[in-house]
């Protein structure tokens, strides 16, 4: 059973009767990885100087890209294929805790339940209605450097469950920012989310105190009570179609991939695959994949 002493999230998470998930240390937030390369708890962003209870776009330095939320719901992106940068107000900001630009940092607001699925191992479902656009949970764990993430992936056996996720953000400058999160040993309820080829959640990197993002999962549609929660491990934003490159990669690497049991009409038959962490460093630099999930 998970150690539920992590605080704010534990009170919102239940475990189905008779179930016993594998043990891990519960933490509602990202923690530094064992390699010590990245410290997600460090505060490096300056705060806004807004002396109001809630910040306004084009006045607040945290909202240079415009409003992030509308009544707790994520505002739609101008380009539906990509997530826009999201910066929430942080610990150094002068605005109040009730500021509408503080959503992900507040943690779970819905009652969720960990349960045993028929074919997919453990899963996560909601016990109450969730409206489209609402923040559901974070995918939190140890934040690793590339070398440690690669070492852990390569040490896995074929029967092992993989929880390491690699998020690659492509910047206008042409640079790629990589974030590796592993909730195998320390993590939150996000580790129980299964993949779906037609998911009801989508992931957006949200920054609060530093450039190390929180991997936030938002509702892609209205979600009914009792429905299993899922996201696309490939990182496709808002269920956008597979690219030609993604389709070609899936055809080439089927022999290394695990079967998908999501049951959706658009099921690709296999879980998404990103071979960059199995490759040499030179080969990794050529990869453009977005996510590598459980």
How would you describe this structure in keywords?
294 residues, mainly beta, five-stranded mixed beta sheet, four-stranded mixed beta sheet, 22% strand, globular, disordered N terminus
Brief overview:
The chain has about 290 residues and is mainly β. The chain has helices at about 145-155, 245-250, 280-285; strands spanning about 15, 25, 30, 70, 75, 85, 110-115, 120-125, 135-140, 140-145, 165-170, 175-185, 195, 200-205, 215-220, 230. Strand 7 (about 110-115) and strand 8 (about 120-125) form a beta hairpin.
What does it look like?
There is one protein chain. The strands form 5 sheets. Strands 2, 3, 10, 11 and 12 form a 5-stranded mixed sheet that branches. A 4-stranded mixed sheet has the order 6-14-15-9, with no helix packed on it. Strand 7 and strand 8 form a beta hairpin. The protein has 294 residues and is mostly beta strands. It is 8% helix and 22% strand.
